[in-house]
Design goal:
Blueprint (H helix, E strand, L loop, with lengths): L5 E11 L4 E6 L13 E5 L2 E5 L1 E7 L2 E6 L5 H5 L5 E5 L13 H4 L3 E4 L4 E10 L4 E6 L5 E6 L5 E5 L4 E4 L6
Parallel strand pairs: 8-13
Antiparallel strand pairs: 1-2, 1-7, 2-6, 3-4, 3-7, 5-6, 8-9, 9-10, 10-11, 12-13
């Protein structure tokens, strides 16, 4: 059986109290969605381990949670800095014109003239729109606003390409 494809959705950034609770930073949109996934896969010592969330709640601008088997502060401290992920199959299906960032990462980026600009390294959010970070053949970053039907002309997951309205600098 193939190993499940894990998608990072947050990280453990601290401890809360003395009863094994951890502080969680969510990368989901909206952030509270992190609490709807089970189980969580937590990376510890370079390996992913499955954990049930025993308890969780909003706290300040983030969340706190207690993982099954974690009942004291010392044990909770072992999780600080750990990534949280879920299986790709746990994510809800999207409409055909929407994509998860993880599905765009690695795709080739070509402009409307067929010139290959590079491949998607990662994306990041701004207040106005998301931004594609494209690594060109020199290893430099090209930042392209992710604005469908304006800069982003087509995403073809099957072909592994994103077509953009973007000119190449000489």
């Amino acid at each position: 059986m193939a190993e499940p494809r894990l998608i990072p959705i947050g990280r453990i950034v601290g401890v809360f109290g003395v009863k094994g609770w951890v502080k969680v930073l969510s990368d989901t949109n909206p952030p509270v969605n992190i609490l709807s996934y089970a189980p969580w896969y937590v990376r510890r010592n370079g390996q992913w381990h499955s954990y049930a969330v025993a308890e969780a709640q909003a706290h300040g601008k983030g969340f706190v949670a207690r993982l099954e088997g974690c009942s004291d502060r010392d044990r909770a401290m072992e999780f600080i800095g750990s990534d949280i992920a879920v299986e790709r199959s746990q994510l809800p299906a999207l409409p055909p014109d929407e994509h998860y960032w993880i599905d765009l990462t690695g795709l080739a980026v070509v402009n409307q003239h067929g010139i290959r600009l590079g491949s998607v390294s990662h994306l990041f959010a701004t207040g106005a729109n998301d931004v594609l970070v494209v690594k060109d053949n020199r290893g430099e970053d090209i930042l392209i606003p992710y604005v469908p039907d304006y800069y982003i002309l087509n995403v073809d997951s099957t072909a592994g390409t994103i077509t953009v309205d973007w000119e190449v600098e000489a």
